[in-house]
């Protein structure tokens, strides 16, 4: 089964594939346990517990893509952002987890995989809540006619997809997952920033409250705010690679007259200058 292809349509086909991949977990896990038992290893019960934890986390992460998402499917802008995000996370973590055989790992490497995977799931839960809030608070009664092809080529989601061609060691796979996770952290923050810039402080506050943003562990870089008014080449140079990628895929947003005051809503979550990479 090719678990890394067929996910470039405008509906949430990657979300559907993520459920398929997650539900393949028992088969992969069962085969792994049969192999361990056949080899006569003494860690059989430990591997049962480890695979069960990972399987349950993957299923919960995939089911959360659809939970309460009906309104998102009818909201063109929220759905475009969802497809962009879901594609990236699916190719960056879930596909690599299975295609590189990371479910075979145990001990310290197993623990590190769980930490990284747990953060992907956590970030995705923030984004799914935000997409639902977007559709609920700002419903589209008559969306503008048009077509959005996602993800564009080249882009970070496409890069993550092309990574699936690589044959990597477990250590190399974990390093790549961490690299993509840092991009996912900034990608999530950028999607939030764009919403506040477009809709201003009042609606922005309602969106954040509805999404439960006060409970999020997500940092925001104030240098991104300083880059917002710039244009042309100056803007390109001021924005990070991730911010440019989001804008290329989802388009520029029209700035609300009070966009600067809207971004002040994020002030309590501004990252400290000394903040290092999320994962150890």
Number of strands: 0
The ordered string of helix (H) and strand (E) elements is: HHHHHHHHHHHH
Number of H- or I-type helical stretches: 12
Largest sheet: none
Distance between the termini: 33 Å
Mean pLDDT: 82
Helical content (DSSP H or I, runs of 4+): 55-70%
Rounded Rg: 20 Å
Q: How many domains would you count in the coordinates? A: 1
Poorly predicted tracts of residues:
1-23, 272-280
What class do helices, strands and sheet pairing give? mainly alpha
Overall geometry comes to: elongated
Q: How much strand content do the residues show?
A: under 5%
What's the helix and strand layout?
Layout: H1 13-23, H2 25-38, H3 44-63, H4 70-73, H5 76-99, H6 107-137, H7 156-162, H8 170-211, H9 222-227, H10 232-238, H11 241-250, H12 259-263
Structure explained in plain terms:
- The protein is mainly α and 280 residues long.
- The protein has one domain (13-269).
- It is 65% helix and 0% strand.
- The protein has twelve helices and no strands.
- The chain starts with 12 loop residues before the first helix and ends in a 17-residue tail after the last helix.
What are the main properties of this structure?
65% helix, 280 residues, 12 helices, elongated, single chain, disordered N terminus, mainly alpha
Summarize the structure.
With 280 residues, the chain is mainly alpha-helical. It has helices at residues 13-23, 25-38, 44-63, 70-73, 76-99, 107-137, 156-162, 170-211, 222-227, 232-238, 241-250, 259-263. Helices cover 65% and strands 0% of the residues.
């Amino acid at each position: 089964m090719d678990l890394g292809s067929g996910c470039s349509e405008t509906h949430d086909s990657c979300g559907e594939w993520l459920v398929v991949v997650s539900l393949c977990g028992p088969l992969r896990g069962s085969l792994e346990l049969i192999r361990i038992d056949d080899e006569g290893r003494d860690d059989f019960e430990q591997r049962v517990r480890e695979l069960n934890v990972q399987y349950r986390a993957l299923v919960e992460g995939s089911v959360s893509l659809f939970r309460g998402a009906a309104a998102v499917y009818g909201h063109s802008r929220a759905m475009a952002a969802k497809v962009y995000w879901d594609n990236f996370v699916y190719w960056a973590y879930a596909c690599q987890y299975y295609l590189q055989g990371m479910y075979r790992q145990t001990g310290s490497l197993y623990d590190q995989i769980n930490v990284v995977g747990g953060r992907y799931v956590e970030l995705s839960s923030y984004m799914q809540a935000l997409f639902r809030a977007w559709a609920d608070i700002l419903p589209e009664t008559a969306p503008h006619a048009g077509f959005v092809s996602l993800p564009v080529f080249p882009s970070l989601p496409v890069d993550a997809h092309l990574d699936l061609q690589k044959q990597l060691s477990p250590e190399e796979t974990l390093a790549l997952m961490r690299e993509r996770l840092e991009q996912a952290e900034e990608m999530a923050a950028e999607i939030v920033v764009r919403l506040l810039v477009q809709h201003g402080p009042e609606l922005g506050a309602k969106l954040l409250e509805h999404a439960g943003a006060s409970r999020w562990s997500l940092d925001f870089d104030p240098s991104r705010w300083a880059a917002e008014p710039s244009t042309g080449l100056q803007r390109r140079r001021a924005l990070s690679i991730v911010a440019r990628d989001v804008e290329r895929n989802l388009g520029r947003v029209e700035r609300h007259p009070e966009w600067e005051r809207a971004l002040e809503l994020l002030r309590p979550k501004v990252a400290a200058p000394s903040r290092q990479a999320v994962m150890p």
